[in-house]
Design brief:
3-stranded antiparallel β-sheet, single chain, binds zinc ion, 0% helix, two-stranded antiparallel sheet, 67 residues, mainly beta
């Protein structure tokens, strides 16, 4: 993501895990003349390609793993 103020690239300063599918990121603009620090969300939205060999968690028992 680019800085919404000056459109330079940014670096991620901190990450907080909110849920298994949502993180809050603190980003810092790399432009030394800007220095904007801001927060964004990173969220899982859907699967594009199903995993080939990953274990499947049963929906009625999240702690169990089917092999
Ligand atoms: Zn900036």
């Amino acid at each position: 993501m680019r800085c919404p103020i000056c459109h330079h690239s940014c670096r991620i300063q901190r990450t907080w895990i909110i849920t298994d599918h949502l993180r809050e990121l603190t980003r810092c603009c790399k432009n030394s003349e800007c220095g904007h620090v801001f927060a964004t969300h990173e969220e899982y939205i859907r699967t594009i390609v199903e995993p080939v060999a990953a274990p499947v968690v049963q929906p009625n028992n999240p702690s169990s793993i089917a092999l």
